[in-house]
Design a protein that fits this description.
Elements (H helix, E strand, L loop, with lengths): L4 E3 L8 H16 L7 E4 L1 H10 L4 H18 L2 E2 L5 E2 L1 E7 L9 E5 L5 H9 L2 H18 L5 H15 L9 H19 L7 H15 L3 H10 L7 E7 L10 E8 L6 E9 L3 H6 L7 H7 L1 H18 L3 E8 L2 E9 L4 H13 L5 H6 L3 H7 L3 E2 L6 E5 L1 E4 L2 E7 L2 H9 L4 E5 L7 H6 L2 E4 L7 H9 L2 E4 L5 E3 L4 E4 L2 E4 L3 E5 L4 E4 L4 E2 L2 H8 L1 H5 L4 H20 L3 E5 L3 H9 L5 E5 L9 H9 L3 H25 L4 E5 L12 H14 L4 H13 L11 H6 L3 H18 L5 E6 L5 H22 L7 E5 L2 H5 L1 H4 L5 E4 L1 H9 L3 H7 L1 H6 L16 H15 L4 E4 L7 H10 L3 E4 L4 H14 L12
């Protein structure tokens, strides 16, 4: 019989694939001897089997029975016993943390009989009825798919009737009556009574957790976080311990360091006389751990000791859930905690200083995506601002947008191109789409461990929680602070680093990390406060280690001297792609029109000669900015018609001129040229190397301009390192023909200018045929540069401009891919072409230099792939250069350099 159930005593933290993150860590804490309530885990394999077959495996029911009986024997109580009942929680636990996305049911085992037994043995009738009403509400919403608002409305109505401000103000009699109301809701909504048999409750709850893996919100979260859809979730069945047994009981969530800033210390939220879901739901504003220490010093001291032990054991920030039951501390969960980008860098550097991790490990604890977040702008503190309220700084950043009060409005306004701030009393998992669409999230309730805070931190969204002064009225779509009323659409600004909420727009300025990357360390430290200085030093330290560790060099895609200079300040080691077509924009389009309209060789040559000095000047500025570093000049790639007026607009102009009796000759000639060049699919038509072969002198003009610019720089004492790249080659003969012409021009310019020009000529690998015949193409190429955007288009048969809006959303939803292949390289298909081209190219030329110049060169996941296959460099937009530097270092320490045998010169 396949084993689907493991007791907490049987597992460990390294079994997350099987037991899920929560189950593996419960087992680990049990193994460490920490106070964990006994229980067992149903594996992810059982979930996958259920999702595939549509029915719970029969052997799973048997194994649950055996594990449950073992648990009952250990505790000395039986599930649902009418006199002294054992109660359990049923909680999800996937391999990767998905906070709030899947289901939990507490107090399984309560029914009309056992609730009275619980009241007797606990000596607290109110606690028993409170637990029962919680079970019915959670079970009804989670398992029976009843609208949770029906239970919430009944609770609010009862509080109004009794004049109760909070749930804890209701009496045992109030709660007993509320249980009857809840049971009627279940009967009315499902046509059957609330299940009284404890085992039925347990089985249905386990099945509901399995089903929650495929809810829309869970799938949306996985798409957002790039979590595979086929992992499934484990289910943890744990003996209930109760934080709602009175003032000496409570529940909380804590962190071993501040997850928002990385500051050392103990941070967390605590709610007396409450159950765990009350904290993360944010329905009551919480106390701090300092408050707990005043109320219950012994429990707080024990909790601090456990926190220190767990952080030392995991060697990282730990996120911990705990319950205190009448002065007894119980640990319900631990995991490596989600954190903001700033906290990630600070904590990594701190742990190195504390000698808990190495610098290599610190590099693994941060990501390029987090570094990119730290480069975003922040509010200008010198600007005039109107403070509306202050809450908890839950997830940093500066967010400005129109206030919206529900998820649907956030999605709609975002789709219309409007930045929005989602304003709620508290968020719940159903708000996920709105949180993704919003620039920031603001709640009037909840703490740093509430749903809004945890999810926002994970997504990198700015978030302020627990702004108690704000009265949010979702029905009226307003937020009020005293006499000030914010209505939907009004502009507000939130600062996730300070918790401040401002009325109206607030200007933003560059972040200190962005300034450090462009201006240098000292320029920032001279004016930085202690917290900012610590962050910038942590980034500098880890990024410097990445630079010292990485094998991949990082270049930038730059088309002007200004872009190249900025890229160099950001750490670029050359230009991997200069798109020469960008030099033909603006006023120079007229010269391209002259080229296209030329009716003779002389006219065409004159047009090219007019372009050459302009190109040469552009190249001089570029080579000067990157002096001593390589600059790869790509010859003209797009079809010529892209530089001409719109075909339809020209036809209209000609028709209007004729109608008015005006002379349309010039427009007619231009229209004729546009018609001549028109193609049904121009991306697969006359472009790239094909233009160079059929438009005499075009590529020659560009090569001559580049060679002359290099000669000019050499004479001025510069050290230009120029590379000429031929685009869209599919046959080695194409490259031979262009290379013969290019080599002749280079030799001619070198002789005329009396300089030595060592300019390699290579090609882009951006067609499947080029990748498949790379061994032959390498005979004529000094280097390869993979154009992964076009390679993706041609390998998939996608037209990027059309398909992303047409059906990518559906493909992501249906799991055809988990991320756009234009965002992260498709390793299975396109990546295989890249790997094959690398292998065959280096078989022909063992020292063949290879890089990538598509935007995949700045994508963190793709950078790791390029390291592994043995490329020499990646090239990306200037802003992404620091990200690529960091990820190249991470790739070097995360993999044995299995590609070392493939690597050529750097």
């Amino acid at each position: 019989m396949h084993k689907y159930v493991y007791e907490f005593t049987e597992g460990g933290k390294d079994q997350k694939d099987l037991l899920g993150g929560k189950g593996a860590n419960l087992a680990e804490m049990t193994r460490l001897g920490l106070p964990v309530p006994p229980g067992f885990t149903v594996t992810t394999e059982a979930c996958r089997r259920y999702l595939a077959d549509g029915v719970v495996p029969a052997e799973l029911r048997v194994q649950v029975t055996r594990a449950l009986r073992a648990l009952e024997d250990r505790i000395g109580r039986q599930l649902g016993d009418p006199e002294d009942p054992l109660l359990v929680s049923v909680r999800s636990g996937a391999k990767f943390s998905m906070p709030g996305m899947m289901e939990t049911v507490l107090n399984i085992g309560l029914n009309d009989a056992s609730v009275r037994g619980l009241a007797t043995v606990s000596g607290d009738e109110r606690f028993a009825w409170d637990s029962y009403r919680r079970l019915i509400a959670m079970f009804g919403k989670t398992v029976l798919d009843i609208d949770g608002a029906l239970f919430a409305d009944a609770l609010d109505a009862r509080k109004r009737e009794r004049g109760a401000a909070q749930d804890v103000d209701l009496t045992a009699g109030d709660l007993e009556e509320l249980v009857e109301v809840y049971k009627k809701v279940v009967q009315q909504e499902t046509g059957r009574p609330f299940p009284q048999h404890p085992r039925e409750q347990l089985d249905l709850a386990i099945k509901a957790v399995f089903d929650s893996w495929n809810t829309e919100r869970a799938r949306l979260y996985r798409r957002r976080e790039r979590i595979p859809h086929d992992l499934g979730t484990a289910v943890n069945v744990c003996t209930m311990v109760f934080g709602n047994l009175g003032p000496d009981s409570g529940t909380g969530v804590c962190f071993t360091r501040d997850p928002a800033t990385g500051k050392q210390g103990v941070y967390g939220d605590y709610l007396p006389n409450a159950q765990g879901e009350d904290v993360v739901a944010g329905i009551r504003n919480t106390l701090t751990l300092a408050d707990l220490a005043e109320r219950d010093p012994a429990s707080a001291e024990q909790l601090y000791a456990v926190m220190r032990r767990l952080e030392t054991h995991y060697r990282d920030l730990c996120d911990i859930e705990f319950t205190i039951e009448r002065g007894k501390l119980w640990m319900l969960q631990t995991r490596v905690g989600k954190r903001t980008a700033a906290a990630a860098f600070r904590i990594a550097a701190q742990l190195v200083d504390e000698q808990l991790i190495t610098l290599d490990e610190a590099l693994q604890r941060v990501t390029g995506e987090q570094l990119a977040r730290l480069m975003f702008p922040q509010f200008d503190r010198s600007a005039e601002r109107r403070l509306l309220a202050t809450g908890l700084a839950a997830s940093p950043g500066a967010a400005v947008g129109a206030a919206v009060f529900d998820s649907a409005a956030a999605v709609a306004r975002h789709a219309a191109g409007e930045p929005v701030i989602l304003v709620r009393r508290e968020t719940n998992p159903d708000d996920l789409e709105g949180m993704i669409a919003a620039a920031g999230v603001l709640t009037s309730r909840g703490g740093k461990t509430s749903h809004a805070a945890v999810v926002a931190r994970g997504m990198g969204r700015t978030c302020v929680c627990g702004a108690e002064a704000i009265d949010v009225d979702t029905a009226a779509r307003t937020a009020r602070v005293g006499e000030v009323v914010v209505t939907e659409g009004d502009m507000i600004a939130i600062d996730g680093s300070t918790g401040e909420v401002f009325l109206g727009d607030v200007p933003v300025i560059p972040s200190p990390v962005a300034r450090y990357l462009e201006e240098g360390l000292e320029a920032v430290l001279d004016r930085a406060d202690e917290e900012t200085g610590e962050l910038v030093l942590a980034v500098h330290r880890i990024l410097s280690h990445a630079d010292a560790t990485r094998r991949l060099r990082v270049r930038a895609n730059a088309d002007t001297g200004e872009d190249a200079a900025r890229a160099r300040r950001l750490g670029a080691q050359g230009v991997g792609l200069c798109r020469t077509e960008h030099m033909f924009l603006g006023e120079r389009r007229a010269l391209i029109e002259r080229l296209v309209l030329a009716d003779s060789a002389a006219a065409r040559d004159a047009a090219l000669e007019a372009l050459r000095p302009l190109q040469r000047g552009d190249f001089v500025a570029l080579f000067e900015a990157m002096d001593g570093l390589p600059v790869t000049v790509r010859l003209l790639d797009p079809p010529l018609h892209e530089f001409l007026p719109d075909r339809t607009e020209l036809a209209v102009r000609v028709a209007v001129a004729r109608e008015r009796g005006e002379d349309p000759a010039a427009d007619e000639a231009l229209l004729a040229a546009v018609e001549r060049l028109h193609e049904s699919n121009p991306m697969l038509g006359l472009r790239g190397v094909r233009l160079g072969l059929v438009v005499p002198g075009l590529f020659a003009m560009q090569v001559r301009a580049a060679a002359e610019a290099a000669a000019e720089r050499i004479k001025a004492g510069g050290r230009p390192e120029v590379e000429i790249m031929v685009p869209l080659v599919g046959s080695v003969m194409e490259l031979h023909l262009i290379r013969d012409e290019t080599d002749g021009i280079l030799a001619e310019v070198a002789e005329r200018e009396a300089v030595t020009l060592d300019i390699p000529v290579g090609t882009m690998i951006e067609l499947p045929r080029a990748a498949l015949t790379a061994g032959r193409i390498a005979e004529a190429a000094d280097f390869f540069s993979f154009g992964t955007n076009d390679l993706t288009q041609t390998a998939w048969g996608f037209s990027r401009d059309d398909v992303e809006a047409a059906f990518f959303a559906a493909y992501l939803d249906k799991g055809v891919f988990t991320v756009s292949p234009f965002e992260t390289l498709d390793e299975i298909g396109v990546g295989r072409l890249v790997r094959l081209a690398v292998e065959e190219g280096r078989q022909t030329r063992p020292r063949l230099k290879m890089g990538v110049c598509g935007e995949h060169g700045g994508d963190p996941d793709s950078v790791h792939f390029f390291h592994h296959v043995g490329l020499d460099y990646v090239s990306c937009s200037p802003f992404r250069v620091p990200v690529a530097r960091l990820e190249a270092g991470r790739a070097a320490v995360s993999l044995d350099d299995t590609a070392a045998g493939l690597a050529g010169p750097r």
